[in-house]
Write a structure and sequence with these properties.
Radius of gyration: 15 Å
Largest sheet: 4 strands, parallel
Helix content: 55-70%
Shape: globular
Number of strands: 4
Mean pLDDT: 95
Strand order of the largest sheet: 2-1-3-4
Amino acid sequence: MVLVDTNIWSRALDRKALNNKEEVDKLKDLILSSQVVMIGPIRQELLSGIACENSLNKLKANLLAYDDFPISTHEYVTAAQFYNICRKQGVHGSMTDFLICAVAVNNEMYIYTRDKDFDNYAKYLPIKLLR
């Protein structure tokens, strides 16, 4: 299973970008093989900031194909621990990033992202990145 980060979804949805073919093809492969995992915070990030109501409704409808993976108290506690581990090493990140890491680690998932912050997290956390 692969937890797909917001930046990959965004690049796949950007029709204007020409340099996204590799990421889009990889995402398509993951979708076709039913390996994609969605969590609520990523869904929220994807839907935030869309001014056009028609575009928002279309994206909401398309994302309904993916149920939100349940996030338990254990994941939130793990995310806080991951934040503390990284902070002690001088590595900072968003709460959503650490929640992504926690969900992935606790459920043996890969993280598919272009966000270089995850490379820094991987130095101190047992995350598996899909590149």
